[in-house]
Design a protein that fits this description.
Elements (H helix, E strand, L loop, with lengths): L3 E3 L2 E3 L1 E5 L3 H13 L3 E5 L5 H5 L7 E4 L7
Parallel strand pairs: 3-4, 3-5
Antiparallel strand pairs: 1-2
């Protein structure tokens, strides 16, 4: 589990990957209020690099929305 400790509490880390900044801000606020550590990614193409990086995540929430092309 990719949790971190802060003041004696274990806090799971979540990655939110979604192109809509307002939606991510709302989701982040709610999750942080529940005690989660949240990282965001607005560029869906970067998700594989982030997940393969040095920061471990307990959960990744990925958008299924496609950008207009």
């Amino acid at each position: 589990m990719a949790t971190t400790r802060g003041r004696g509490k274990i806090r799971p880390r979540i990655l939110i990957a979604h192109p809509d900044h307002e939606w991510v801000d709302q989701a982040r606020s709610r999750l942080e209020a529940m005690g989660y550590l949240v990282n965001e990614c607005f560029e869906l193409d970067w998700v594989p690099d982030i997940l393969g990086g040095s920061i471990p995540f307990d959960l990744a929430l990925l958008s299924s929305e496609m950008e207009p092309g």
